[in-house]
Amino acid sequence: MSQPVEAFETKSDFAYRQVRDRILSGELGPGSVIQQRELASSIGISTTPLREALRRLKSEGLVELDAHRDARVSPLRAEEARDLLEIRRSLDPLAASLAAERRTNADLQAIRAAAAGLAPLRPRPSVEQLVAHRRFHAAIYTASHNDLLIGTLEALWDKADRYRLLALRTDPGQEARDQKAGEHDALVECVALGDGAGAAEIMRKHIDTSLGATAVWRLGHADAADGT
Fold first, then answer.
1. Which SMART domains does this one have (predicted)?
2. 175-202 b/e with 16+ CB inside 10 Å = b?
3. DSSP-assigned letter for residue 33
4. pLDDT over 80 (residue 34)
5. pTM attached to this predicted model
6. Are 73 and 23 in contact (CB under 8 A)?
7. What distance in Å separates the CA atoms of residue 24 and residue 168, rounded to the nearest whole number?
8. Is 33 left (phi over 0), alpha (psi -120 to 50) or beta?
């Protein structure tokens, strides 16, 4: 069933949001062909704004387009998963450290509000659950008050969600979920106390045991099994 276009939102923006959500939720799986006429009809738009949205998604690395306008969802790649993890190992701890040093009272309120609506991800999470997870980390990034860093990490998050879904194809278990919940609580505490070094160290451990790290391991083993 198609959803209404929000006020002041162009049809292209609406199509972008709808298709992006379907890709990040796994409804449009990695490597799957995008049937443009059928997809446009299901969204409730024509193919013209859909093609505009697909070009935008291509620029973000989520969609591949060829010269004949055929489209498919970009496949998951071990190299990209590794690259994302390596960059986040450096930048997320930096953002957490700066957040602890620079956060305002409003920033801290936003971080605590986001943490209150957060639960460790289980297999087959909804888009809303993924958004809640992103909202918490985005609140940490925002509190760093470094616009270049915030923009970079936001862009990385767009790519990383699909790898989180790959890792969640198997249940990490309650112990792992409890660990993640504890790390979220400790991050909030360190930011509240202005403990930059502590916030950076917790974030570093958070990334090293993240769903993204699991995806790197899983894709790497899959490539090894295939002999690639």
1. FCD, HTH_GNTR
2. eeeebbeebbebbbebbeeebbebbbbb
3. B
4. yes
5. 0.80
6. yes
7. 13
8. beta
Cα–chain-centroid distance for residue 213? 13
- Residue-by-residue DSSP string for 56-98: HHHHTTSEEE-TT--EEEPPP-HHHHHHHHHHHHHHHHHHHHH
Strands (E), 10-66: 63-65
For residues 174 and 197, what is the distance between their CA atoms, to the nearest angstrom? 28
The dihedrals phi and psi of 33, each to the nearest 5 degrees, come to -75, 135
Q: Please tell me the distance from the alpha carbon of residue 134 to that of residue 72, in angstroms, as a whole number.
A: 25
pLDDT given for residue 226 in this prediction: 58
Whether the per-residue pLDDT at 1 is higher than 50: the answer is no
The larger pLDDT score, comparing residue 79 to residue 122, is at 79
Cα angle for residues 44, 46, 50 (degrees, 5° grid): 95
* CB < 8 Å & 24+ apart, contacts of 41-48: 42/2, 43/2, 43/3, 43/14, 43/15, 43/18, 43/19, 44/2, 44/3, 45/2, 45/11, 45/14, 45/15, 46/11
Q: How many residues does this entry show for the chain?
A: 228
Tens of pLDDT, residue by residue over 59-75, are 888 999 987 778 999 99
pLDDT in tens, 158-201: 788 888 888 888 888 889 889 999 999 999 999 999 999 999 99
Q: How many CB atoms lie within 10 A of CB 171?
A: 11
d(Cα 160, Cα 178) in Å, to the nearest integer?
22
